Amino acid sequence: MVKEMDDKTKFAIAKHVPLADQIKYVISEGWDSQYRKKHLKYGSVMEHLMNRLTEPYMPKKEYNGVPVPAATTGNTSALYYATQSAGVLLPAVTTSILSQLVALGAPQLPPNQRIVTQAELLQASEVAEGEPIPAAAPSVDVDLKNNRKFALILSFSDSLLAPVSFTDAVVPYVQGQLEAAANNATDAFIVNLMESGGTAAASIAAALSAFVGDLRTACWIGRPDTLASLQDAANPNIGPRGGVYKTLPAISSLAVPAGKLILQDATRIAVFDGPQMVDRSQEASIIMDTAPTIDMSATLHTFQQSMTALRIIKYADAKVIAAPQIITLAS
Question: What is the per-residue pLDDT across 36-93, written as a single tens digit (0 to 9) for each?
């Protein structure tokens, strides 16, 4: 029996258990012990954390009755679930900007702590005898928050998650949907952060000239079609998947507006790449819309409609230290 988890338990599980195994655990309601043992690689870890961090509970005893024949389309057509084929088909998605910035050297700071930063290097001055000595001080800035979260509830048919139709294709499909939803939200947040704190540039040459960060650790961020348009004889290694443009790495992201190109110093944007957690409910009434404040006309009742709701929460934050250049390319 899958137990209800409080926030403390969810944080502990998110730190120790991969997302794919979190998904398996939360959808394992109704699985017998043998099936759970077969598919739950981290089952003992989950149970240990649950038992240690939540109130004790008494699991239901398994019923060892007379065995019945396996369900088929012939003997139980109303209850039979089709098996899943291999392969996962999802809409186009790009790798999280957050993870790509980390790979390029973005400092990962613990939340709720400050860091000493300086916009420009300080330089001592020659001082004549008897003249006052100039003074300067670094600024104390950058405070990332651990309570900035991005979340979405997705509903899936019970037939997809039922044990009889459960295959290796199910978890990657569910995981892909949940991770894409979380990454799309953090990408939109980071792009908006860069645009609101960046400086407009009319051309790539102007952006390189006015850049206030360190060009040696800078990167380009743009849509796949925008990056593809930059390819020429002098820059053959740039394309829809990213690559290198003017010797600087490029990040491909669908979150960037069309016709825009961002020049960002990857080592001067602090990030908090926090945990992501999955929870589940089969007895919920949910407003099926991405805007949480609409009317109740599109309410889904999961139990009545044989659906399972999975909720993903991603904790993340970022703070721009050196302002990026926001280039509008000619169409």
Answer: 777 776 555 555 555 554 444 444 555 455 666 665 656 665 555 555 555 556 677 7
Q: What are phi and psi of 234, to 5 degrees?
A: -80, -20
Tokens 């598919």, located at residue: 39
Give every CB contact of residue 246 below 8 A, 6+ residues apart in sequence: 204, 208, 235
Q: What is the pairing mode between strands 269-281 and 260-265?
A: unpaired
pLDDT in tens, 199-229: 999 999 999 999 998 999 999 999 999 999 9
Strands 242-245 and 299-301: unpaired
Beta strand residue intervals within the chain, DSSP E: 115-117, 139-141, 149-157, 199-201, 218-222, 238-239, 242-245, 248-252, 260-265, 269-281, 285-287, 299-301, 307-320, 325-328
Longest CA–CA span in the chain (Å) reads 102
**What are phi and psi for residue 250, nearest 5 degrees?**
-120, 140
Report CA 72 to chain centroid distance, whole Å. Answer: 39
Q: Which of 15, 18, 59, 61 is nearest to 40 (CA)?
A: 18
Give the other-Cβ count within 10 Å of 317's Cβ: 24
Q: What distance in Å separates the CA atoms of residue 261 and residue 220, rounded to the nearest whole number?
A: 7
255-296 tens-digit pLDDT: 999 999 999 999 999 888 888 888 888 888 887 776 555 565
Q: Which of 7, 16, 22 is nearest to 174 (CA)?
A: 22
